[in-house]
Design brief:
The protein is an alpha+beta fold. It has helices spanning 9-28, 43-49, 72-78, 109-112, 248-261, 278-283, 302-306, 325-333, 406-410, 429-435, and strands spanning 33-34, 37-38, 53-65, 84-99, 104-107, 115-121, 127-129, 131-136, 141-145, 167-172, 180-191, 202-205, 217-219, 225-232, 243-247, 267-268, 271-275, 292-297, 313-317, 320-321, 340-347, 350-357, 359-360, 365-367, 378-382, 396-401, 417-421, 424-425, 443-449, 452-458. The protein is globular. The N and C termini lie far apart (62 Å).
């Protein structure tokens, strides 16, 4: 029940009219100057910045089937054919012009993924068809290109200098409404472990980010780009004040790879690391909690050749402070292959500087159909230090699953990790080859998918 006294209807209307009149007059008398200084406004900055943010519309197609047909038991007992249909898809998003001369636009991978057509609409209303230069699912970033003149590119800031409490502005195309501006502050830095991407180092902000803002700009009060808006945390799909952006320093490193190679060519050191917790810090006789503890060093790897050992604590990489384990993966994953990296470590509490060469990932993949016809369409690979599960579980990862293949119909997905085959633990590719050397009537797989594990029976 309301605690306000009830008003006669006529009196209420009269009160509303009086209030609106007073507010209207007050608004009309707002001063342009206060103490001979202009009233603060973001408008001048936004007038320079908004032309560098574009709206994206995508079209594509997907092949669908009823979820019941993903269940092998349903297909076996009901003996029904695979019923599929093709569905047209449409999507909305945003992008940021970073190279006006070459027409390069940075956006999110999930915005343009599986799109047959990408239409870019500029602030001045011009529309262009875009082509994909390169895309990286692990960081959820993509570069597209348009052939256009008189483009306006945003200037990038150094996102490493961001602080919690800095004011920021989000620019994008929420819900397809067109360019929209929201403001807020940096709520947190270095957010990870969200399960949104493989490489996570998010800027958290309370500037409203909604569906359609993906790929848009997060700028500081000087109009400099500090991040690419990517994800929100919301129960109902709308904004509740928790949004995430990819720091522009990381995004520009990814963009460099995508423009040069069309993909991110990630290097490796051959180590597994974990966060330096309070208990571990005490066990190692350290006073601080920043750093990452090496838990595993591969024999013959660049890390082993450099002299790294299990129990070493990495505190800096190329002068950049390491706060936790994800920092190691994020930095190493974007270093150029064959480059030299400086590692500042603590060994038995004593500082030590080592140098290691960043090696190319082996990248060996195996067509699973060569092991068992029921796995047709899946490509397998060893777990490496690119995976967040590296050093935590043993198994092989499914790198890709072809559409409408037997593996896809059985319910296997890209990113799944096969932990065991017929209740025998899988160590690596060579081991699973030995386990499947002899044909079996049933194929029972123990699958790890994100944070869940389950058994899948293939017949």
């Amino acid at each position: 029940m309301s605690v306000l006294p009830r008003l006669h209807l006529g009196a209420a209307w009269l009160l509303c009219i009086v209030l609106l009149s007073v507010l209207g007059c007050a608004q009309a008398r707002l001063p342009v100057m206060v103490d001979e200084q202009p009233v603060p406004s973001l408008a001048p900055m936004l007038e320079r910045t908004i032309p560098g943010v574009v709206n994206l519309a995508t079209r594509g197609r997907v092949v669908e089937q009823s979820p019941l047909f993903d269940d092998p038991f349903f297909r076996r007992f009901f003996d029904v054919p695979q019923l599929q249909r093709e569905r047209r898809t449409q999507g909305l998003g945003s992008g940021v012009i970073l190279d006006a001369a070459r027409g390069y636009i940075l956006t999110n991978h999930h915005v343009i993924h599986r799109a047959d057509e990408i239409i870019v609409t500029l602030h001045d209303g011009r529309r262009f068809d875009a082509t994909v230069v390169g895309s990286d699912a692990d960081t959820d970033l993509a570069v597209i290109q348009i052939q256009a003149s008189d483009l306006v590119a945003l200037r990038a800031a150094d996102s490493d200098h961001l602080r919690v409490g800095d004011f920021v502005v989000a620019i994008g195309n929420p819900f397809g409404l067109g360019q929209t501006v929201t403001s807020g502050i940096v709520s947190a830095l270095g957010r990870s472990g969200l399960g949104v991407e493989t490489y996570e180092d998010f800027i958290q902000t309370d500037a409203s980010i909604n569906p359609g803002n993906s790929g848009g700009a997060l700028v500081n009060l000087r109009g400099e780009l500090v991040g690419i808006n990517t994800a929100i945390l919301a129960r109902g799909g709308g904004n509740i004040g928790i949004g995430f952006a990819i720091p522009i320093n990381m995004a520009r490193e990814v963009m460099t790879h995508l423009v040069e190679y069309g993909e991110v060519q990630r290097g490796r050191l051959g180590i597994a690391v974990q966060d330096l917790t309070h208990d571990l810090a005490q066990a190692f006789g350290l006073s601080g909690r920043e750093g990452a503890v090496i838990t595993r060093v591969e024999t013959g790897s660049p890390a082993a050749q450099a002299g790294l050992r299990e129990g070493d604590v990495i505190v800096r990489i190329n002068g950049r402070v390491v706060r936790h384990a994800t920092d190691v993966r994020n930095v190493i994953g974007l270093l150029r292959i064959d480059s030299t990296v400086r590692l500042d470590i603590l060994r038995n509490g004593q500082p030590l500087n080592l140098h290691a060469n960043v090696a190319r990932r082996a990248g060996q993949q195996l067509d699973a159909a060569s092991l068992d016809a029921r796995l047709q369409g899946a490509m397998l690979a060893d777990l490496d230090d690119d995976s967040p599960l590296y050093g935590q579980v043993s198994g092989v990862v499914i790198k890709s699953v072809a559409r409408n293949s037997r593996a896809a119909r059985a319910g296997l997905r890209e990113g799944d990790v096969i932990l065991s085959v017929n209740r025998q633990a899988v160590q690596d590719l060579a081991h699973i080859q030995r386990l499947l050397a002899s044909p079996t009537r049933n194929l029972l797989l123990n699958i790890r998918r994100e944070q869940q594990a389950f058994f899948l029976l293939l017949q």
